[in-house]
Specification:
Blueprint lengths: L1 H11 L13 E8 L7 E8 L5 E8 L6 E3 L5 E6 L7 E7 L6 E8 L5 E7 L2 E6 L4 E6 L11 E4 L15 E6 L4 E6 L4 E8 L4 E10 L6 E6 L5 E6 L4 E8 L2 E9 L8 E6 L5 E6 L5 E7 L5 E8 L4 E6 L5 E6 L4 E7 L6 E8 L4 E6 L3
Antiparallel strand pairs: 1-2, 1-28, 2-3, 4-5, 5-6, 6-7, 8-9, 9-10, 10-11, 12-13, 13-14, 14-15, 16-17, 17-18, 18-19, 20-21, 21-22, 22-23, 24-25, 25-26, 26-27
GO molecular function, one term: 6-phosphogluconolactonase activity
Protein name: Lactonase, 7-bladed beta-propeller
Keywords: Carbohydrate metabolism, Glucose metabolism
């Protein structure tokens, strides 16, 4: 499978056939996929954040690695296996950022079905288990491998949509600058707070951090660079909710619509590295990316919309803020957009990374 994908890329994309002469602009990245349509699992690439050129490097066989994240450096990353049974798991993967080579280190059960997000905080890995409605924690060993499940916390219900919020779902876990952890409690339209005890490497619950408007279905969480603002993408409402943040608590500032088609498929959310623009992806109808300007007070003003391929479940922005890469799952491709740093608008470069069912893009730390 890997050889055939590499051959196709080289035949169709002369701009993606090798490394740039400017090595300082070369980024290693890994892509997680769903493996129900023939994907091998995880793919590694090298991407030039100045020119947009790329080359495919390696692949690793893993079932449904739908979300992954790097540890404290680029030598190890952690990838979920999103499965709706006892085989749901979290994997530690050794990574060589220069060659793209990947090696499975170990696998542990999440004890929660369909893990869809993983976060690393200090010496702990945390998974959000969607169908399991729980948050699982694991100690990271000195060699980067994972211990067995340490603790698990349950989510809640209470939202008005009985078909989507009838059982608990945890969708995202996000570490804060001050040692707190926030989790999106999807079915209760709220954020949960936890405190990380770094001395004992234990996560302690601290109750409800704050509530979103009813029928939001909070999905992904991001923070401003100074940590004083929190932005949450609502999957059901299709709105981005803005909060002020302090010491494990949030205060609602604004809720602004991203999904004007009301498709109830809000997905991912990211800020540009300079914090001037925020993007939110929408699925199921009018698939694309909403573009927001971040005002001086942290509030958002919608300034544009960029259509994408089908089902942009995840996207990421290069560290220099020059390119946005959108993983369009059902189009079997990653689209490469150039970001206008003045306006925030996106220009479709026409360049595609063709991979089966891509759903997560992460750049290695430098």
């Amino acid at each position: 499978m890997l050889k055939s994908i590499v051959a196709a890329l080289l035949l169709c994309s002369s701009w993606g056939t090798g490394y740039s002469e400017n090595e300082s602009q070369e980024l290693a990245l890994v892509v997680g996929t769903y493996t129900d349509t023939g994907s091998h699992g995880i793919y590694s690439l090298r991407f030039n954040q100045e020119t947009g050129a790329y080359v495919l490097l390696d692949s690793l066989a893993l079932v449904n690695p739908s979300y992954l994240t790097f540890g404290k450096d680029s030598r190890v990353f952690y990838a979920v296996s999103e499965l709706g049974d006892k085989n749901a798991s979290l994997n530690s993967v050794g990574f060589n950022a220069k060659t793209g080579q990947m090696r499975l280190l170990n696998t542990v059960a999440t004890d929660g079905e369909d893990p869809c997000y993983v976060e690393v905080a200090n010496r702990m890995a945390l998974t959000a288990n969607y169908s399991g409605g729980s948050l699982s924690t694991f100690v990271i060993n000195r060699d980067g491998t994972l211990s067995k499940l340490k603790t698990r916390f349950e989510g809640h219900v209470g939202g008005p949509d009985s078909s989507r919020q009838g059982q608990a779902h945890i969708h995202c876990v996000k570490k804060m600058n001050d040692g707190y952890i926030l989790a999106s409690d999807f079915s209760a339209d709220q954020l949960l707070a936890f405190r990380l005890d770094t001395a004992d490497n234990v996560l302690k619950p601290r109750g409800v951090a704050g509530r979103l408007p009813l029928d939001s279905g909070p999905r992904h969480i991001i923070t401003s660079r100074n940590g004083r603002l929190v932005y949450v993408m609502g999957e059901l409402s299709g709105a981005v909710t803005v909060f002020q943040y302090h010491a494990g608590r949030v205060k609602l500032v604004q809720s602004v619509l991203s999904d004007s088609a009301f498709a109830r498929g809000g997905a991912d959310i990211h800020l540009t590295p300079d914090g001037r623009f925020l993007y939110a992806s929408n699925r199921l109808k009018n698939d694309g990316l909403s573009i927001f300007q971040v005002l001086s007070n942290g509030k958002l003003r919608k300034v544009g919309y960029q259509r994408t391929g089908i089902h942009p479940r995840n996207f990421n922005i290069t560290p220099n803020g020059r390119y946005l890469l959108a993983a369009c799952r059902d189009s079997d491709m990653i689209q490469i957009f150039r970001i206008d740093k003045r306006s925030g608008m996106l220009e479709d470069t026409g360049r595609l990374i063709n991979l089966p069912h891509p759903v997560c893009i992460q750049f290695a730390k430098r």
